[in-house]
Amino acid sequence: VQLVEESGGGLVQPGGSLRLSCAASGFTFSVYAVTWARQAPGKGLEWVSSIYDDGSTNYGDSMKGRFTISRDNAKNMVYLEMNSLKPEDTAVYFCAMGLSYWGQGTQVTVSS
Is the Cα torsion angle 27, 28, 30, 35 positive or negative in sign? Predict the structure, then answer.
């Protein structure tokens, strides 16, 4: 059974930081690209970042310089370090394995 589970969301003040985690099981983890996406209230799904099997990464324009994606293949984990958070980063953040297997999401709220 393939499972993807996000954690680490919460309430943070503007300018603050959070680290999201994505735990996967039932996969040959190292061969998968892993993607973070988010959905803000009343809006569609927005791509945030991806990390590929070779460790290369990509980011959405509004995330560059603030977010860092990383992976630990030994632990079947992917992380999203988010710094300098803004109210517009408020969303449910989802992790996906190869864009086929999605978690349930974790809420991030940026507010004073």
Answer: negative
pLDDT in tens, 57-70: 999 999 999 999 99
- How many angstroms separate the CA atoms of 13 and 60, rounded? 22
H/E stretch holding 66 reads none
d(CA 61, CA 35): 15
Query: What gap in Å lies between CA 110 and CA 57, rounded to an integer?
Result: 25
Say if residues 36 and 79 touch (Cβ distance below 8 Å).
no
Neighbour-count burial of 8, counting CB atoms closer than 10 A to its CB (0-12 exposed, 13-18 middle, 19+ buried)? middle
72-100: average pLDDT: 96
